[in-house]
Specification:
Number of strands: 13
Bound molecules: guanosine-5'-triphosphate, magnesium ion
Shape: flat
Strand order of the largest sheet: 3-4-5-6-2-1-7
Distance between the termini: 16 Å
Number of domains: 3
CATH topology of the largest domain: Rossmann fold
Largest sheet: 7 strands, mixed
Helix content: 40-55%
Structural class: alpha/beta
Radius of gyration: 29 Å
Amino acid sequence: MNDTICAISTALGVGAISIIRVSGPEAISIVNKVFKGKDLNKVDSHTINYGYIIDKNKIIDEVLVSIMKAPKTYTKEDVVEINSHGGISSTNKVLEILLCNGCRLAEAGEFTKRAFLNGRIDLIQAEAVSDLISSTTDASRELSLNQIGGKLSKIIKNLRQEILEVLANIEVNIDYPEYEDAVLVTVDILKEKIKIIEKKLKEILDTAKDGKLIQEGIKVALIGRPNVGKSSLLNKLIEEDKAIVTDIAGTTRDIVEGSISLKGIKFRFIDTAGIRDTSDKVEKIGVEKSINTINDADLVIVVLNGTEKLTLEDKKILESVKSKKSLIFINKNDKKLNIDLKNTIDVIYGNTINEDGIDNLKEKLIEMFNLGSLNLNDFTYISNARQIALLKGAKKLIESIKEQIENEMPVDLIEIDLKRIYDVLGEITGETYQDELIDELFKNFCLGK
Ligand SMILES: Nc1nc2c(ncn2[C@@H]2O[C@H](COP(=O)(O)OP(=O)(O)OP(=O)(O)O)[C@@H](O)[C@H]2O)c(=O)[nH]1
Ligand SMILES: [Mg+2]
């Protein structure tokens, strides 16, 4: 990690300014070699310096160079940022000159990886940087920012500290039985501690699902028989004529997706092929896709044609979503209704001609996901599958400890699982980590970050 890396940090394209970022022990001296202006080796830290990037005395670009000396920088190393004029060829030329003068091209995510390895941020924060870059709604942006700020890290670190104290106490009991000042960790004390740890783990995990929804958006499947108006409903919800609408049953064959933001949360609506028995090969594949969509949706909206009595097919569809979070949209209420629905799940009436019921439907979605009470200022949610998996692992270990206590196992045996929980929580923040994992995680970053 002792070399000096560089990369273009802004999106490459035609723009007013591009930033080329350099980090490492020789960042300042390398840039100084190709800079015409003040001697950068002598300027103060955290200053912006005007001048030119030159290549063998030829001026390449007029630039502003930010000098940031370690350790108060993004990577905790010396960092130089060159603000050059945007444009692909001049930006690339500056990068090329740096590479010729001793820099190495950074790998994707390498700046953030260095920030992590140098101890400036932990893994939760690093992952949040990646999420922030790709966030598309206000809520997901705030969630990422909060995690970069270290809110979640703090909660997990406190929990680890608590476990560490118990572990240390047990160790003292074992190694220095004669040491009378130390509290003897009895099974009762351990039970009490485990209860507290379990409660805290549960609290963090309970927010996990919300965090995932915020970051990835809520997937809503529109399901129903052919011709009931699923595609029409999608178009109204996203206010765009995205899906094809005709009066021919079986119009939609493939999945069509569109999204909107409600209360800062992204809702991804998925229009599907109408479900029916069919001998048409293509339509059949579409119907299978529809059924699969039900499985991985966060919510299913079953669309029914209100002008017709409930058919056997409708009943089958309603049956198939029984175990899912779902609601019914009874469409075509601009005409005489004929439907005979005796159903307990939420029902909204409306139509896609004069858009009756569309706003009600949106309100209902906000209500179903408790978005009204979502406090954007107070995000400590876990949003990431890796973190959730580790937390679940820790919770399993708690179960195993409880069993051991039940079976009157000696405290020093129970200690082994408690130590594991400590390590697992450390993996979440990156305090205990494996090199391969770190490489894998940072690969998902964009270049220059
Ligand atoms: N009167 C009335 N007609 C509607 C309404 N919504 C849709 N339709 C008509 O119903 C027909 C089918 O609409 P689509 O939106 O294509 O229905 P679909 O459920 O996507 O159908 P498939 O893709 O075949 O599964 C079209 O002729 C629409 O104009 C409505 O609210 N009222
Ligand atoms: Mg359709």
